[in-house]
Design goal:
Blueprint: H1 3-58, H2 61-70
Length: about 90
Amino acid sequence: MSNRALMSLVSLLMICALLLVNSQFQARRLFIELERSQLRQKELETEWSQLQLDQSMLAKHARVDSFARTSLGMTSPGASRTHYIKAGAK
């Protein structure tokens, strides 16, 4: 085998080795990014669950009624202020 062919093979081997190192580096980088994204997803799912729980708590009828009575001074209308409408009445 001539020197020229040997040098070509060695340079080809070096290029392949560098490409392998680069692809391994990219794979590690992408894996780390995937792990971070999965962690962020879990955090967001936890936050979403907490927000749904908060929303259901804030929307309970007893809480809304209590807030309306204490903060807004609202009361239930008495019988004298209640008007009933019959179906078909004009």
